[in-house]
């Protein structure tokens, strides 16, 4: 069942107009009746402001004109003037408590929107005592009651919340919303709506302060169509966004991607089917590894008006979207998804889960079984009776950005930031920044970057360094060990590993890499091939590294290599020599078993000879215990 507030509003509103014009009025004042009838005609023409003025005259002519108070309250609520609507609903109840049982449902919803939860609860409880309620109306009333109960409790237990308006550099008298920042917090991109046209703006941070926001790009923004609801990759190179009614779209709104080119942006293109449909797809949020996209759609197969879906990138493109399920979606609306770079903490807004009224912000965490847990409301005063949406976080999870029209800012929706309470934060992540250069020329290189979770033996980041600067940026969970592989056609690939166990997330982990052209005598230390102490069986976490070596040999079919094994100086020289040779042979055997021609390979053990560090400490000895390959022909 698809049920929205607007649908319910119309459902209630129209019968009241018809009913009021057919019954005997509660007044005999001819002027009051005349104005009441004129108001009905104005409503038929959608002239709501005229209707309000005519109904105000009617109740001024006769303050006990029940039908006029009821209709005036409905029109005021339609125009989002809830305080005034409540006043007239209460007048109806005072004059004629049984005038229309739906009055109790209407005033209850209006009171929730106005933050009056206790009287709303009383009126809603009264409403559900009536017999033979329609199933949709009873379900909606009970949902509003849950909102009241939650809100009364939440107000008694407020969470820490000090919102800071981001100032005139970001906010204007227009609406600003849906902010996203790069992982290093150097750039903020957001949506601004002027004259009902949505475009992107950006602000760069300089010396800890945000600069005056500027129009993002003519390549992305258009004067005719709406662009908004965006997600930026952690390194700031890819912008996923919503484009509506564009000539190359499939539906009313579709999801597009644009790639940064130097200081500008390239032409965006649609992500096409099956992600986009003739329906409504919007508000994308991209995972840190760039392989899963979360978005909002009203496509078939959902639970409500707008649901959150996800799609995973495959070798053939984006896969069939999957609904996030009943632990996220309700029969109402869920929107503004944001997946944190930890890939296990999910934020969104909803008017379906118990909240403070309208749309509230929620958090859901990924359980060990791979399922998303039921969401938790972020609480009061983060959430209020107004609309809260568009929550995004900094990569370190300490601060959040969001938009609100309820905090008396510069006008309309403004963007705010605040420190997130500890219990609402994601898992700690940090970001890794690197640059790739040619070892001889020191010129930047575009290269393939792959970062591997060594425990899971799977890539968590795959991308190219920038062509202009050779730079890359990746967000990674702290407390883990990672392997790093960097490759480029015509160069030896680079292998390394690093640990983020104990790393302070406030600082970036910086890596600088110099790639060497393929030349005879060139060597690569395979830092992510692992053996147990005094053993030569290859450990499972070595497979990703071995696969990179297979790819290198496949891409360079003329290359022949020597696989070399080394040990430290502890133990018997003969035993060390044999161990180093067996370890080199294990790599040789793995490669030949993976269809690498044996004639391209030799292996040799060097024991404790040729150390690359003094054998004076455990750390130095670990560097000497290594596996290498050396180019012997090309």
TrEMBL record:
Keywords on this record?
A: Cell outer membrane, Membrane, TPR repeat
What is the name listed in the Swiss-Prot or TrEMBL entry for this protein? PD40 domain-containing protein
> What SMART domains does the record tag this protein with?
TPR
Q: Which organism is it from?
A: Mucilaginibacter pankratovii
Q: Does the keyword Protease apply?
A: no
Q: Which SUPFAM superfamilies match?
A: DPP6 N-terminal domain-like (SSF82171), OmpA-like (SSF103088), TPR-like (SSF48452)
Q: Highest taxon of the source?
A: Bacteria
- The TPR repeat boundaries are 66-99
Q: Where in the cell is it found?
A: Cell outer membrane
């Amino acid at each position: 069942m698809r049920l929205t507030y607007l649908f319910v509003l119309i459902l209630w509103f129209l019968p009241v107009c018809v009913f009021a014009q057919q019954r005997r009025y509660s007044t005999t004042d001819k002027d009051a009746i005349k104005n009441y009838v004129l108001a009905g005609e104005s409503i038929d023409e959608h002239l709501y402001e005229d209707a309000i003025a005519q109904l105000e005259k009617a109740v001024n002519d006769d303050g006990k004109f029940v039908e006029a108070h009821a209709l005036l309250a409905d029109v005021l609520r339609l125009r989002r003037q809830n305080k005034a609507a409540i006043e007239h609903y209460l007048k109806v109840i005072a004059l004629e408590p049984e005038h229309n049982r739906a009055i109790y449902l209407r005033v209850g919803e209006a009171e929730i929107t106005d933050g009056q939860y206790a009287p709303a609860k009383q009126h809603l409880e009264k409403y559900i005592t009536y017999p033979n309620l329609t199933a949709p109306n009873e379900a909606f009333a009970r949902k509003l009651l849950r909102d009241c109960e939650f809100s009364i409790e939440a107000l008694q237990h407020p969470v820490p919340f000090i919102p800071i308006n981001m100032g005139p550099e970001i906010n204007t008298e227009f609406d600003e919303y849906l902010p996203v920042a790069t992982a290093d917090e150097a750039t903020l991109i957001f949506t601004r709506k002027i004259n009902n046209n949505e475009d992107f703006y950006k602000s760069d941070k300089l010396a800890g302060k945000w600069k005056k926001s500027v129009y993002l790009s003519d390549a992305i923004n258009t004067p005719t169509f709406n662009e908004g609801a965006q997600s930026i990759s952690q390194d700031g190179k890819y912008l996923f966004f919503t484009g509506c009614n564009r000539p190359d779209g499939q539906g009313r709104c579709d999801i597009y991607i644009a790639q940064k080119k130097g200081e500008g942006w390239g032409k965006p293109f649609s992500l096409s089917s099956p992600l986009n449909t003739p329906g409504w797809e919007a508000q994308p949020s991209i995972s840190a590894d760039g392989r899963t996209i979360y978005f909002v759609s009203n496509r078939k197969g959902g639970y409500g008006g707008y649901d959150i879906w996800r799609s995973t990138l495959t070798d053939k493109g984006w896969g069939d979207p999957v609904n996030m399920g009943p632990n996220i979606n309700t029969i109402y609306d869920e929107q503004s998804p944001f997946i944190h770079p930890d890939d296990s903490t999910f934020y969104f807004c909803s008017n379906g889960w118990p909240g403070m009224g309208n749309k509230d912000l929620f958090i859901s965490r990924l359980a060990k079984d791979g399922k998303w847990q039921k969401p938790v409301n972020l609480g009061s005063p983060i959430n209020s009776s107004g609309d809260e949406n568009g929550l995004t976080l900094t990569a370190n999870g300490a601060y959040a950005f969001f938009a609100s029209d309820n905090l008396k800012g510069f006008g309309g929706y403004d963007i705010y930031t605040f420190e997130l309470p500890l219990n609402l934060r994601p898992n700690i992540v940090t970001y890794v920044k690197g640059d790739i250069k040619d070892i001889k020329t020191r010129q930047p290189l575009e290269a393939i970057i792959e970062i591997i979770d060594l425990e899971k033996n799977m890539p968590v980041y795959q991308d190219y360094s920038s062509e202009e600067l050779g730079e890359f940026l990746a967000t990674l969970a702290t407390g883990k060990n990672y392997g790093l592989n960097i490759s480029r056609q015509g160069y030896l690939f680079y292998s390394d590993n690093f640990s983020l166990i104990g790393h302070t997330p406030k600082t970036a982990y910086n890596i600088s890499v110099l790639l060497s052209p393929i030349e005879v005598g060139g060597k690569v230390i395979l830092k992510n091939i692992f053996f147990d102490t005094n053993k030569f069986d290859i450990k499972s976490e070595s497979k990703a590294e071995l696969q990179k070596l297979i790819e290198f040999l496949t891409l360079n079919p003329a290359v022949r290599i020597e696989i070399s094994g080394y040990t430290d100086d502890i133990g018997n020289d003969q035993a060390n020599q044999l161990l180093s040779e067996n370890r080199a042979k294990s790599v040789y055997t793995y490669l030949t078993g993976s269809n690498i021609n044996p004639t391209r390979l030799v292996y040799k053990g060097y024991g404790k000879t040729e150390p690359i560090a003094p054998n004076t400490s455990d750390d130095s000895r670990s560097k000497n215990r290594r596996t290498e390959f050396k180019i012997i022909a090309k």
